[in-house]
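Quick one: co-fold with zinc ion.
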Amino acid sequence: MATTCPCGLSKSYGECCGRFHAGTAAAPTAEALMRSRYSAFVKGDVAYLLRTWHPRTRPALLELDPGMRWTGLEILDTGDGSAFHATGTVTFRASYRGGSLHERSRFERVDGAWVYLDGEFLD
Ligand SMILES: [Zn+2]
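Sure, here it is.
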């Protein structure tokens, strides 16, 4: 049976988002960062969420709802955010038990590394 990363790609967690969480690799694109942040929500990795948040918009404290059960991530659209860009957007739907979140997130590079800037809810 194939192992799947929480972000939905058919790679093991360790070969996918786990490398970014461990700090042994950096997300090469805005989409990869978005996927790794979703996986961090699934894993409850608050430290990773904070360190991939833009210093300008990063909350001082982040508390995750322990009752939240994320059930899947669907990337709907991306704009820029490749190795050749300094900014990018990712539109996605993140599902959880009882609902889903439809958001367009903005990402920027800070010292070369992709970070989450902010997002707007689409519905
Ligand atoms: Zn992943």
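If it helps, Residues 17-121 form a domain with the Nuclear Transport Factor 2; Chain: A, fold (CATH 3.10.450.50).
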